[in-house]
Specification:
Strand order of the largest sheet: 1-2
Strand content: 5-15%
Largest sheet: 2 strands, antiparallel
Order of helices and strands: HEEHH
Shape: globular
Structural class: alpha+beta
Distance between the termini: 40 Å
């Protein structure tokens, strides 16, 4: 760690106190340009398994990625490289999936695709159950998540509903 003397120790103590009270488990990285000002990996990666946090730990960040994905896709749309009405079956290999050939990029961005959720909490499914056989740190590529939902029946036909 680098930074002003005493400040790193103070921040580290505050983070570790929260870990001790079971209020935080995670990785903190503060940078200014290429300079690492502070780095700490504390607590466990999962309440289920006693895997300690590391600075290289990958996280299942769920819905926060929707904003970044939308921005990236809309940049492709703006550049003329991906029309909003492109069918996703023309972009992804969805052989043997239950996902309708009618689903477009626009449907995905507007939550109107009808594609089933990986874990439908409203139907009583538990999100944690997804990671019993495949721990979350075993999901490395986006494609690794497809088996969680591509074989589930659609919630509604593409464009005929909205579900976040």
């Amino acid at each position: 760690m680098s930074g002003p003397p005493g400040r790193d120790a103070e921040l580290d103590a505050a983070i570790r106190a929260r870990v001790g009270r079971d209020e935080f488990s995670g990785v903190v990285l503060l940078r200014r340009g290429d300079d690492v000002l502070f780095e700490a990996a504390v607590g466990r990666a999962s309440r289920r398994w006693p895997v300690p946090m590391t600075p290289a730990m990958r996280f299942d960040v769920a819905s926060v990625t929707k904003l970044f994905t939308s921005v990236a896709v809309l940049r492709l749309v703006g550049d003329g490289r991906l029309p909003l009405d492109t069918r996703i079956v023309d972009v992804l290999d969805l052989t043997d999936a239950t996902i309708s050939a009618a689903v477009t990029v626009r449907h995905l961005l507007t939550h109107t695709s009808g594609i089933a959720d990986d874990a439908d909490e409203e139907a009583g499914e538990d999100y944690a159950d997804l990671f019993v056989d495949v721990p979350c740190y075993g999901v490395v590529e986006i494609a690794d998540t497809l088996p969680f939902f591509v074989h589930k029946p659609p919630v509604f036909p593409a464009g005929e509903g909205c579900r976040y």
